[in-house]
Amino acid sequence: MSVDARKTIFLVEDNRGDIRLIQEALKSTTTEYEVIVARDGMEAMAYLRKDGEYAEAIRPDLILLDLNLPKKDGREVLAEIKSDPSLKHIPVVVLTTSRNEEDISKSYDLHVNCYISKSRNLTQLFRIVRGIEEFWLETAVLPPKSP
Questions:
Q1: Burial 46-60 (b: 16+ CB within 10 A, else e)
Q2: What's the order of all strands across the beta sheet hosting 62-65?
Q3: How far apart, in Å, are the Cα atoms of 61 and each of 6, 33, 124, 145?
Q4: Any residues with CB less than 8 A from the CB of 54 and at least 6 apart, and which?
Q5: Which helix (H) or strand (E) holds 96?
Q6: Residue 117: inside a domain, yes or no?
Q7: Is residue 146, in this structure, part of any structural domain at all?
Q8: Could you give the number of structural domains in the chain?
Q9: Residue 34 belongs to a domain
Q10: How do the pLDDT tens digits run along the chain, 147 residues long?
Q11: Which residues contact 102 (CB under 8 A, 6 or more apart)?
């Protein structure tokens, strides 16, 4: 696969263990992905807006977003992404431990593309990540990458 055709996943997650597990789950698939990680909401938005050190940032094909983030909450990040004309077409999957009905409703009100609760069961988490990868990066037709 050429570098230009490689899919890019932007993982916005502060938990080092979850980052490692999600990266391992993606490595177990047959397709190679570039996984870019932001550990807080401020860093995520700086990357997506290509601010400062992120001026050459690659526009992701898919964003995996945790809700409970330091510096800027995932709900705020989601609201900013979906209200920004240059970012709103990037699919966002909330991948969080929260099963709170208010979080679920608010995320869909903010136009999240999908809301998934993380499993603490390793086998289940790998199945979830593979399902996300299969649907969003192999089955769904994604919007073209624009600058």
A1: bbbbeeeebeebebb
A2: 33-38, 7-12, 62-65, 92-96, 114-117
A3: 9, 10, 24, 7
A4: 46, 47
A5: strand 92-96
A6: yes
A7: no
A8: 1
A9: yes
A10: 344 467 889 999 998 988 888 888 887 766 778 889 999 999 999 999 999 899 999 899 999 999 999 999 999 999 999 999 999 999 999 998 888 899 999 999 999 999 999 877 788 888 888 888 888 888 888 887 765
A11: none
The residue segments making up the domain with residue 93 are: 7-139
Cα torsion angle, 144, 9, 76, 118, sign: positive
What would the two tokens of residue 38 be? 């932001």
Question: Which of 124, 54, 51, 133 minimizes the C-alpha distance to 91?
Answer: 133
* Residue carrying the six token digits 């920004």: 84
> What amino acid is encoded at 131 in this protein?
G
For residue 83, give both structure tokens: 């209200």
